[in-house]
Amino acid sequence: MKKVIKVIVSMGVGEGAQDKSVIEAASEDLLVITGQKPKVTRAKISISEFNLREGAPIGLMVTLRSKRKDAFLEKLFRIVLPRLRDFQGLSIKSFDGQGNYNLGIPEQIVFPEIDASKVKKIRGLQITIVIDTNSNKEAYKILRNLGAPFEKESPSFAKATGGRSG
Angle 153-158-163 (CA atoms, 0-180°, nearest 5)? Predict the structure, then answer.
C-alpha cells in the first residue's frame, strides 16, 4: 500500500553565519514544532556577494518518520493550515511528479506550540512530504485521505484523480 514515507521540515537562517544565537533560537523553534532536534545545514559553496563562506551554517532541517510524521501531518492539516491568513486550501500544483508535495509556511508562529511574544524574528518553513509513488494523482489521493485541505480543484483535475470538484 502506498503511503507517506517521511516529512522534511526546513528553515533558512542565512544570518546564522554571522550570529550563532540566530541558529540557536531558530533551532529551538523547530524543536518545539517538530518534537525532534534539527540538523544544521551548511553552505556547499562560497558566494562573496552574500558574504557566505563554504561550510557556514545557513539553515536547519528535521526529517520526521513514523509516529512523529503522523502526528505532525495531523497537526499541520487540522490546526496549522486553517490558522493561516487568507488560506484557500493547498495548491494541487505543488506536486513534483516524483511523489513529493512541497509547501511553504510564511511564519512559524502559526504553530500552536510557539509563543509569539518570545519570537525575535518571524521565519518561514519549507515542508516536503515524501510519498512512495511517482504519480501526482496517487500522491494527491493519499494526502486527501489523510485530511489534506486542498483548494477547490478544477473539474478536469478532479475527474482525473477521482476527487470531488468545485
Answer: 105
Q: Comparing 3-7, 31-35, 71-75, 151-155, which segment has the lowest mean pLDDT?
A: 151-155
Q: What letters, b where the CB count within 10 A reaches 16 and e where it falls short, cover 64-90?
A: beeebbeebbebbbeebbeeeeeeeeb
Question: How many domains in the chain?
Answer: 1
Which tens digits make up the pLDDT trace of 85-135?
Answer: 888 888 888 888 887 999 998 888 888 888 777 777 888 899 999 999 888
Residue 110 lies in a domain: yes
Question: Domain range spanning residue 135?
Answer: 4-161
CA neighbor of 127 nearest in space, from 80, 87, 86: 80
Strand ranges inside 39-144, DSSP E: 39-42, 57-64, 100-105, 125-131
Enumerate the β-bridge partners of residue 6. 130
Return the SS3 of 41: strand
166 lies in a domain?
A: no
The CA-CA-CA angle for residues 113, 32, 79, to 5°, reads: 40
pTM: 0.82
